[in-house]
Amino acid sequence: MLLFPSDTRHLKSKHRSSKLSNFTESTFVRHGPCATCGSSDGVAIYSDNHKVCFVCNAYTHGDSSAPSHLSKPKTRPLEMTGTISAIQDRRISMDVAKRYGVTVETGTDGVITKHHYPYHNHAGNEVVGTKVRNVATKEFYSTGDLSTAGLFGQQSFAAGGKYITITEGELDALAVNEMFDGKWPAVSIRSGAAAAVKDIKASLEYLETFDNVVICFDTDEAGTKAAQAVLPLFSPRKARVCTLPLKDAGDMLKANKVREFTRCWWDAKAFKPEGVVSLSDTGVWDKFLKRGTEEVTPLPKSFGSLNAMMNGGIAAGEVTVIGALTSIGKSTMVYNLVHGMYAESAKKIGCVFLEACVGETVENLLSVYMGTNISDIPTKDRDYNLYHEKYDELANSDKLHILDHQGALGADELFANMQYLVKGLDCDIIILDPLQAAVTSNDNGVIDAFMDKCLKLAKNTGVSIIIVSHMRKPHARDAHDVGEYDLKGSGSINQIAFNTILLSRDKMSEDDYARNCTQVQLVKCRRTGRTGVAGWLFYEGTTSRLVATQAPEIKAANAHDDF
Fold this sequence. Notes:
563 residues; 3 domains; Dna Topoisomerase Vi A Subunit, Chain: A, domain 2; 9-stranded mixed beta sheet; 30% helix; N-terminal domain of TfIIb; 23% strand; alpha/beta; Rossmann fold; disordered N terminus; 5-stranded antiparallel beta sheet
C-alpha cells in the first residue's frame, strides 16, 4: 500500500500540505497517459482518482479539475543504499549493474523493492545525487543535487569512441548496454523528455567526442518531440534517431527482442533539417515538372507588360506586394485590379480594405464595373435602379467577399479573418489594403511574423495574396525614382514577396496629364527574374478606370511631332 501524501517523497514541497491535505490515504492503481506533456504512461493514477505525472510534474485533483504544476521538490540528503545486484526481472546482468554502479534494496522475501541510480558530477569522480525507483509503482524520487550531475552512466565511459546511445531513462540505458554486451556506451538524460535539451546541452562537450550519437527516447509523443528537439544540438551528420516497435529499450530487452532492437538501432535515421532535400529524394523531380505550371490569374490588360513579365500574372500560392506613396493611387489600382480579375477569371476574391467602409468599397467597385464615376454624380441625378441592377450582377456571382471593418485591426485578428475568407468562403485571391493599417506596431518583429503567416497561408492553401504597402517619402526629387527598399516597415515585406510592384506618380506636376499618370514598375518576380518599367496608367476621372498610356515625356514628344 502506498500512503499518499506521506510516502510520496519526491512530491514534498512547501505547497504540499495545502495542495494534498485532502488525501490521507490512497493506493496506486495504474499508469496512464499525460494530457499535459504527452507521455504515454507518465501519470500515476490513485484509488481516489487524483493523478500525478512523474515526467512533467502535472497534478490533477480527484475531482478531475485542471492540472497544475507542483513546485520543485526540496532537496533530499544523498541516499545510496542497497547492494549491487543483477536485476533479473529486467534482464540486467550483474556486470552491467556493476558498470553503472546501480544498487538495489530487497524486502524480507528477497524481492527487489527499490533501484538506486547514481549520478556523478561532470568530472565523473563523485556521486552528487541519485534517482530512486519504487519497483511496485514505477515512481521516482531524487536525492542529493542532480543539478550538478552529468548524464546517467557518463562516468562509466571515457570520452571519445565510435558510438554512444542516449536514452530517456536509466533502465533503458542499462538495457541498451546489456543488449550490446557492454560494447557500446549508453547514457540517460536526468529529468525526462521535458528537460532533454537542457540535460544534453550540459553534457554536449562530452557527447560531441563520439563519432555517432544515437537518440533512443521513448516512442510516445513526448519522447518523439524531445528527440527532434535535441537533434539540432549536434554537429551535422553526427546524431541519429532510433525508432522502436515497443515503448523503450527497457521493454525491448524485457520482451527478449534483442535482435529487433539492434536492427532498429543500426537503422537509426540521421538528422536532416526540415525542408532540406536531396535530388535523389522522391518527389523532387515532380516539383521541377510543376514549375511554371501553377494556375495563374492575369492582371488587367491595361497594366502594361506586367503579365508578360510575370509569365501570365499572379500565380497560386504567391504573395505579391504593391507599394506606393500616400495619395499616389494605390486604392484606385486595387479597385481596377479587383475588376480585372473579376472580369477575366472565375476566381473568388476576398477584399480587406481597411481604409474604406463597406459602402465606400461598394461604390468604388460599382464605379469601375460600370465605367461610371458615381462619386462625381450628384445624389439627385443618380440612377439607383441601374446601380442596383449592376450590384445584383456582382452579388449573384458570389465572387466578391468584403471584410466589414474600417481602421486599425490587430495582426492576429486580421489574419484570422483572412483565414476565414480562404478556408470558410473559398476565396482564391486575398487583397489587403494597406498593410500598415493592419499591423500598426512599430516592432518589425510583428510585421515579420504577419508576413510569415501570410506566406504559409499562401503555400498551404494555394491562395494568391496581394498586400498593398505604404512607402517612405523618397529623398530623390524625381517622383519616379523609387525602389523596393523604400517600402515602409520591415525588410521582410519585400523579402517574403514573390512579386513586388511599385507605383509612382508626380502628383505635383504642373502638367495635368503627367499629374494623372502612374508608372508601374516590377522590381521583383521570383518566377521569371524579370524587372523594369512595365507600363504607364492614366486615370480617367469620368470612368474611374486606369487605362494604358505612354510616359508623359513620350506623349509630349509625340504631340510635338504631330504639331
